[in-house]
Amino acid sequence: MITVEQALDKILAHVDVLETEERLILGCLGQVLAEDVYSTIDVPPLDNAAMDGYAVSSADTRGASRQSPRFLQVIDTVAAGSVSECQLKPGTAIRIMTGAPLPKGADSVVRFEDTDEPSPKGSSPQIGIFGEAETGLNIRRAGESIARGSIVLTKGVVIRPSEVGVLASLGRSTAMVIRRPVVAILATGDELVDINQPLPLGKIYDSNTYSLAALVMRYGGIPSILGIALDNEDSVVAGLRHGLDADMLLTIGGVSMGDYDVVKDVLAKQGEIAFWQVRMKPGKPLAFGTINGVTDAGIARNIPHLGLPGNPVSSMVTFELFVRPAILKMMGKKNLTKPAIEAVLEDSVVNSDGRRIFARAIVKKRNGRYFARLTGPQGSGILTSMTLANGLAVIPEDKEGVKAGDTVQVIMLDWSEE
Fold it and tell me: What is the DSSP letter of 403?
């Protein structure tokens, strides 16, 4: 058996950053930008009003106060998206809405609240100014947000909603990004039935495929569901052949020591095995290697393959620890680790066989400290324990266990400080 770190290193050494693609900006969310983005325009393009109010010349407001307003003649009204054709002369003002370009001759904007604005419609031809306006008051300058010719977004950033908005502000409808990996998923087991079929006696529904497909989607990949293979080599080989167009293959089950665990045998014949046991619990029977084959289009492929355990908790935990970092690396991301915290464990955990335990835990913050309690029974077949958990409490392999009140590291599956 190899350690968790050794297993992860071997997996990451077999995956590379994928090629780039051009996508519509809304489709780029969560992907890594593959180009430096320069601006061809100023944003905003012109000096404009930062507030609803009156565009004035600051010189016309000298000495103004509520007790002694300065009265200016209103000569025009300009809304956002329009340009006033009037030019301010001494003693005049232009009613202006937020975002409207600053009229010629104006150097400040006095907000409505600092005038004697008589009504929302501004029907008076004269306005009283209640205070002195400094040059530049309530004005957004051209290029204040983005200057023409500047680098706005740098290659390697992850595109979030704010980056989508910035691209849109430049008039960009597409961007070059590192593409999302396609992850093929093949379940194995004579006992499995697809969720759309009746459930015969002795069978179980295939939940693992859907848990893992959802995880692939959560972390930015594209799942390709291959269905269910029976517990024989021909069926497994046929199923894997349909996944050779993917960037990574996942199989579920068939990697343990049972009479019908044939996936690792298929791996040995169709590719190579780098390892098939990891010193961890749950998730000891984890196989990794590569699969060789020819796609339906006649293209020879050699792609990484992970044989995940069949128990549902084991498959999800091993996905989080090994598949997730591989997906992120292929997407060009740099931070491959989940957030981890130190928490006071509220339950005792016995470690009887020298494996690193990842116990499902519920983490809460009280009085500035984190506390973690187990979700309940820790059997690897209890999938509902994953619905309760927001973290994995780590019990090192060199410890015989931990007692309630001990501090442990917890890998956060869901991170929220709310």
Answer: -
Adjacency order of strands within the sheet including 70-78: 108-111, 53-56, 92-96, 70-78, 126-129
Q: What is the mean pLDDT of residues 348-366?
A: 96
What domain range is 285 assigned to?
Answer: 4-17+180-330
User: What is the maximum span of the chain, computed from C-alpha positions, in angstroms?
Assistant: 96
Residues 189 and 281 in one domain: yes
Per DSSP bridges, beta strands 182-188 and 108-111 are unpaired
**Tally of CB atoms within 10 A around 213:** 18
Residues 205 and 324 both lie in one domain: yes
Residue 417 domain-assigned (yes or no): no
Residues 126-177 have pLDDT tens digits of 999 999 999 999 999 999 999 999 999 999 999 999 999 999 999 999 999 9
DSSP 8-state secondary structure symbol assigned to residue 157: P
**Residue after which a domain boundary falls, among 330, 350, 368:** 330
Q: Identify the CA nearest to 225 among candidates 243, 238, 241.
A: 243
User: Is residue 8 located within the same domain as residue 64?
Assistant: no
Tokens 């019990």, located at residue = 395
Residue type at 6 in one-letter notation: Q
User: Quick one: 115 and 187 in the same domain?
Assistant: no
Check whether residue 173 and residue 241 sit in a common domain. no
**pLDDT tens digits for range 251-272:** 999 877 665 568 878 877 888 8
Instruction: From 292, 215, 179, 203, select the one nearest 225 (Cα to Cα).
Output: 215
Half-sphere exposure of 52 (CA within 13 A, CB side): 7
Same domain, 221 and 324: yes
Note whether 170 and 187 are same-domain residues: no
Sign of CA dihedral 125, 131, 132, 133: negative
219 Cβ contact partners less than 8 Å away, ≥ 6 residues apart: 324, 327, 328
Residue pair 254/240 in contact (Cβ under 8 Å)? The answer is: no
Q: What is the CATH number of the domain that holds 25?
A: 3.90.105.10
Per-residue pLDDT at 267: 79
Give the amino acid at 1. M
Provide the domain count of the chain. 4
